[in-house]
Write a structure and sequence with these properties.
alpha/beta; globular
Length: 267
């Protein structure tokens, strides 16, 4: 059966928590990817989430910081800020008993300098080989998510070189179909040994719209079928702005006992 998560913001998490409990789903908390949240007293926000999620029976994931951060920077000050934000996210993930925390690599695919990729790869391997030790200490796996990467080997080669069970992959299907000429099947095949989660939403072929699975150019019947064949049975996370866009997408998944009534309909 599919392991489905709903991506939350601080605004919609109360509603999504009710729906997740009702349908037997998990949550990916994305509030702590916000730079303003992390730059201020995020401990209050963490306590608010802890209180809200007290007693929640589903699995939890954390989307980590990514705005303006890069783990391959040549500037040591930028690397220091990146490491500090990622460390904050790991601490939050541990406090919320999360199954993972994910980060973007933010590869600059339009940089055509011949030696860019080799140097980028070397710096990424150095960063994650060191930082993954923090993940081991708190017991929370780190996932590397594709954003603008145009080839699956960009991520796969890093994971292979670091070779640590606490460093895995999150495959964003919309990003693949927008920014890569390689097929979804190629990406799944390359990342399968490390695949822990997949972000799902649809789009018009031009912009990352975060539409429901049934609206857009991506054939999610085929995509989900391919993901189900992955040995690790990755989490399938609906990354859309509201429940009204997530709810129609539930028909794509298989549940032990799918409940069709809306738990909020009577309210």
């Amino acid at each position: 059966m599919d392991r489905v998560l709903l991506a939350t913001s601080q605004k919609n998490i109360p509603e999504l928590l009710v729906q997740a409990e009702h349908y037997g789903l998990g949550l990916e908390i994305q509030e702590f990817s916000d730079p303003y949240t992390l730059a201020n007293d995020w401990s209050k926000n963490l306590r608010w989430h802890q209180d809200l999620l007290s007693g929640f029976s589903g699995d939890i994931g954390i989307h980590g910081a990514f705005f303006d951060l890069t783990s391959s920077s040549l500037d040591p000050d930028i690397l220091e800020v990146t490491r500090r934000r990622y460390s904050q996210n790991l601490q939050i993930a541990a406090e919320l008993d999360a199954k993972y925390v994910l980060f973007h690599l933010n590869y600059l695919g339009n940089c055509k300098i011949p030696n860019f990729r080799p140097g980028w790869h070397e710096r990424e391997v150095a960063f994650w080989s060191s930082f993954v030790r923090e993940a081991e200490e708190v017991g929370v796996p780190i996932l590397l998510e594709n954003s603008w990467e145009d080839e699956p080997s960009l991520i796969g080669d890093i994971l292979s070189a670091v070779d640590n069970p606490f460093l895995k992959a999150c495959l964003d299907i919309a990003h693949v179909t927008l920014y890569s000429d390689h097929s979804v099947e190629e990406w799944i095949s390359e990342l399968e040994p490390y695949l822990f989660c997949s972000h799902l939403n649809n789009h018009d072929g031009n912009f990352d719209m975060h539409w429901p699975l049934s609206r857009g150019i991506v054939d999610y019947v085929s995509v989900i079928a391919a993901l189900r064949k992955s040995a690790g049975q990755p989490y399938l996370c609906l990354e859309m702005p509201s429940w009204s866009e997530m709810e129609p997408s539930l028909s794509f998944f298989e549940f032990p006992e799918k409940v069709k009534a809306d738990p909020l309909a009577a309210n």
